[in-house]
């Protein structure tokens, strides 16, 4: 069996696949306010799973109990391979790796540059190795899909020899989610040449895809760049960062922490949860309204830049937990895309709050297609993990 572990900035997603890559079970643990909520999807049913712990980081240590209790895995079955999603800035992590001491050392080298993700991956790895000492763990790159970007989409405006020597490039992330969406479209014969994929979750990004290949994405060296996120600032002027550092008397670690964990929607409004912001806004809360408007404006700019980079757009895709569930956010985004013929069907959009398959939400007669695709990073990770272990075994 293959176990997939996907540590996100606010969630843990796990999945079990058999050796023919048939999905056995999916476990999604998310943060709702101060507590954790877990749902297990298997045998065509979805069950709420009560958790006996409250620290998200502990999740990997409880998997065996949960999966065995619900008969997702039987006594005689073992996990031979684990695919672990890796979000880490460096050319090295543009590829998948079977995790050994060298890979762990490379992760440790870059941990301060993506604190939300690398620390979580290292902790996840420690717990997975403890729970499944016999399994081969494959670190699956969340950036590899962006390897097709043209040269100019890798660069910051800095001396190229410094960028090369110190490996400072725009690597991009959420590649597994975008690849899964593109695969799903391809499998159904619905992949047009120019696609903009909005992955909206706790971390969010917008990617331009030309003939199935990434041509640019809003995240860069680390998953801090780009649009405003739940607790991440997104792109911010270095001058503003320096002024913040000086006024708040922060060292490098503190400012990194500030921009990753205390900024974004949380910094603007006091909440990192879009559901809560939508309900506060409806009650007349101005800060919630301003935070949501700032978020939407930042998404408009990112989508606009991808449409121009692609020189057009044939299909708009929403994926990621917010992209899948929030009709309100989709509506506010698409409201500015009518000029290029993207128009939502109000009823289809409102009805799409937890889709299990590709769901069209655009007006059939007038609009270019807008499709909501459930993020399937798990399958992508399982495929990569299986490919790498097979290649190495051969
Ligand atoms: N119905 C919903 N409407 C809007 N936002 C939602 C909804 N359900 C969950 N969210 C938000 O989705 C985010 C989690 O997204 P997800 O992509 O799963 O996170 P991660 O970055 O950990 O992978 C949380 O910030 C949560 O507030
Ligand atoms: C790359 C990234 O931000 O991932 P997530 O959305 O899972 O936190
Ligand atoms: Mg995620």
TrEMBL record:
It catalyses: acetate + ATP = acetyl phosphate + ADP. GO terms for biological process: acetate metabolic process; acetyl-CoA biosynthetic process. Its EC number is 2.7.2.1. The record marks 174, 232 as: Transition state stabilizer. GO terms for molecular function: acetate kinase activity; ATP binding; magnesium ion binding. GO terms for cellular component: cytoplasm. It is an enzyme of class 2 (transferase). Its cofactor is Mg(2+); Mn(2+). Substrate binds at residue 85. It comes from the Bacteria. Pathway: Metabolic intermediate biosynthesis; acetyl-CoA biosynthesis; acetyl-CoA from acetate: step 1/2. Keywords: ATP-binding, Cytoplasm, Kinase, Magnesium, Metal-binding, Nucleotide-binding, Transferase. ATP binds at residues 13, 199-203, 273-275. Pfam families: Acetate_kinase. Mg(2+). Can also accept Mn(2+). It is found in: Cytoplasm. The active site is at 142 (proton donor/acceptor). Mg(2+) binds at residues 6, 377. Belongs to the acetokinase family. PANTHER family: ACETATE KINASE, ACETATE KINASE-RELATED. Homodimer. Catalyzes the formation of acetyl phosphate from acetate and ATP. Can also catalyze the reverse reaction. This is Acetate kinase.
